[in-house]
Write a structure and sequence with these properties.
This protein is an alpha+beta fold. Helix content is 42%, strand content 24%. It starts with a helix and ends with a helix.
Length: 221
Amino acid sequence: MIDLFKMIIVLTVISGVAALLVAVTNAKTKDRIADQDNRTQQEALKRIMPPGVTITEMKKYQPSSHDSLVYWTGTTGNDTVFAFKVSNRGYSSTISILVCTTAEGVITGMIVLDQHETPGLGAREQETISKRYIWNSLFGAKEQIDPWFSEQFEGISISRAITIEKSMGEWHSLNEEGRRLLREKNGVTAITGSTISTRAVTSALTAKAYAYLKAVKGQIQ
């Protein structure tokens, strides 16, 4: 009985010390993590918005949720684009997306910020494909490549249904004619073996991002 009591005390002390260490670590690193997340987000905004725009963070109060919708505008001359952060449940995780569109809903850029989908399947939403040889990377200028999955959304609209083509192969393997036909259908190719993850992204864009776009357009007009 005494040994059991001692064991309980030891385990309690160990648990308390471990919890304290986790709390101290979180307190010391949360600002650094938040700063890194903000820098990552700002870099993503620059990549999905047209070059040369002035980026401004905006907020719109939503009475239904008693919260504010944070979004971004990019302005150049008389033109304005809008960027939204949306998310949707994929096959095994929540997929976080940053998308920029024109006032009419045409996508100028999109990027998957975070996901934990199945490796080799849904996780390929962030896959990049380089056409350079390894020695080009070692001795040449650093290559900036956008994920092929995100790239295929440029030029299609969130104001109507986005079709998912599963018979054409993946977008990175299509020639220019195939890509043109795909855009005419307002469509994208599915990641092989991962239609659920692909559909999670298209649904987030046509449902959530488009709803946000309609809401904020009225605020600035």
